[in-house]
Structures are given as C-alpha cells and as structure tokens.
Amino acid sequence: MLKNLLALTLVLGVSVALAKTYTINIARAAQVGTAELKPGQYSLKVEGNKVVLTSRTDRHTVELHAKKVETAEKKFDNTSIVFREAEGKTTIRSIALGGSNLRVIFEE
C-alpha cells in the first residue's frame, strides 16, 4: 500500500514538473466557462484536463477545466484560438498551442 502511494506521488510530481507553459494572446474580451478574460497576453499551463491561465499584466490566475485535451499527429505552427459569438457574448471554444501538438477544447 505504501509503495503504491509513493509511486502515485512520484508519477503526479513528475507530470506536474514536466508541464510546459505557453504564451497566448487574447485579442478581445472573452468568456471561458464562468471566467471572464480581458484582452492581453496570458501564460497557459496544461495539467491533464486542468488549464491554468495567468494574465501577464496583473498576474490574475484562473483555473479552468477543459472538456478534453487532444494530441494532434504533428505540431501546430502557430497558436490559434477559436471563438464563438452568440447572444452578444464571445466565448473561447478551443486553443491550439503553437510549437506543440496540443489542442485544448473547452466547448464542442
């Protein structure tokens, strides 16, 4: 039992340590879940289905839960954000992270 707990702790620790941070630019105010994001530059870290966004201007941090994180066959050349406009609101549907093969999907 103790060995299993230590192994799990080690695996979780390694996965968090290996989480890479990406820089994204949000051009306009947008909503993700219940979080309202202002335009600006953000640091984005993906840890499983948890996404942590930190504003580069005011250091405000938001933790979000993605519906899924996809792994593409090849790396994305650029970061791209897919927005959805409905009922006067702008929401972020997904973010493809340039330089990686990760796509974070918030809504389908």
Number of domains: 1
Helix content bin: 10-25%
Structural class: alpha+beta
Q: How far apart, in Å, are the first and last alpha carbons? A: 40 Å
Low-confidence stretches: 4-17
Order of SSEs? HEEEEEEEEEE
Walk across the major sheet and give the strand order: 1-4-5-6
Mean pLDDT: 86
Let me know the largest β-sheet.
Answer: 4 strands, antiparallel
Q: Which descriptor suits the 3D outline?
A: globular
Could you tell me the number of beta strands?
Answer: 10
**Percent in strands:** over 45%
Discrete helix count: 1
Radius of gyration: 15 Å
What does this structure look like?
The chain contains one helix and ten strands, in the order H-E-E-E-E-E-E-E-E-E-E. Residues 4-17 have low confidence and may be disordered. Helices cover 16% and strands 50% of the residues. The longest helix is centred in the first third of the chain and has 17 residues, at 2-18. It has one domain (20-105). It is of the alpha+beta class. The termini are far apart.
